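yo

u said u wanted the structure for the complex thing, so here. seqs first:
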Amino acid sequence: KQEVTQIPAALSVPEGENLVLNCSFTDSAIYNLQWFRQDPGKGLTSLLLIQSSQREQTSGRLNASLDKSSGRSTLYIAASQPGDSATYLCAVRLGADAGGTSYGKLTFGQGTILTVHP
Amino acid sequence: KAGVTQTPRYLIKTRGQQVTLSCSPISGHRSVSWYQQTPGQGLQFLFEYFSETQRNKGNFPGRFSGRQFSNSRSEMNVSTLELGDSALYLCASSRLGRADTQYFGPGTRLTVL
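structre next:
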């Protein structure tokens, strides 16, 4: 059974800092990994999608890396801003050898609550 | 392009009642998934539909059911509501499924009294 762990559970930083959020998963046979942010009481906003054949993806101040063999992904946020304050979630989707029955299923971590203070 | 929409946004029900939630995916998206989010369990997969067929189902009791229509809109139904069903129910759509980004709606906040 795939399990996803995110460290740290919470993080508070001053504005302007570069920071790293960590995600690990137990089954390395993933198809892809997706990072999301969630603002309180809201839905999820997709940040980056990394396919299993890719090593990293970048979008603006965000960079996500994937090391499938070691079961790890990191989300790097450069020059953090108060507007980045949210819960960040990583989610993995199982690969082709998952019996073909897990097409759309995402398995989520518990999230990292990020607070960026001015 | 309009995002994923969910109705209603908030719902209050009492134990024993049933409820139906609706999700309209992004235009052109054929895969719709449903998730339950609670403070204790986090986000848990309920089921996924593609072209009106349930393609995958999570570990939830049979009180939870869903369907997808020919226009890709989806509904989920919960019968005989329990207090523990109080949660944020999120719908996600993607173009085809596995390889694609999943886009989430704002969710329906269900409170069971």
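Chain B has no helices and eleven strands. The two ends of chain B are 37 Å apart (CA to CA).
cya
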